Amino acid sequence: MDVTTLISIFIAVLTAVCAIFGLIIQRKTEKIKIIESQLSEKKYMAYADLVGMFYNILKDVKKEKKSDSTIMTERMLEAKKDLFIYGSDEVFRKFNEWLCYTNEYKDDNKHMKYFLELMLLIRKDMRNNKTFITKTDIMINLIQNRKEVEQMKHYWE
């Protein structure tokens, strides 16, 4: 065999190896994207369930209806599990901070500070830190009365 033939064979083998590596890398990249998408969807659902639970409690309060504590306990335990598995570290820690504060200081309205920080972290996590919503904006959304919100601001500032 002459040198030209050997070079041609080498180039053909090198091309085949590169093509195989390219396919392997492409498949691994696709798998990673699928897994990230699934995790993102599960995180979104965990956050949506948690926020939904708070809004359901608010709805019951506005209707002057007592929430079923058994159902709320089950939903809270499920939220804890989902946040542990899918939530960001920052959201998980803020959720724990809020839970501990509400448990230790039951009659202190300062827990609103931790609640609002949690809601902001969830929103930031879902929007890649791109949100201009403030704690006051969230409270206006919840209470729907600017004067009351202004009177309560000292709880979260």
TrEMBL record:
Ranges annotated as spanning the membrane: 6-25
Name of the featured protein: DUF4760 domain-containing protein
Source lineage: Bacteria, Pseudomonadati, Bacteroidota, Bacteroidia, Bacteroidales
Keywords: Membrane, Transmembrane, Transmembrane helix
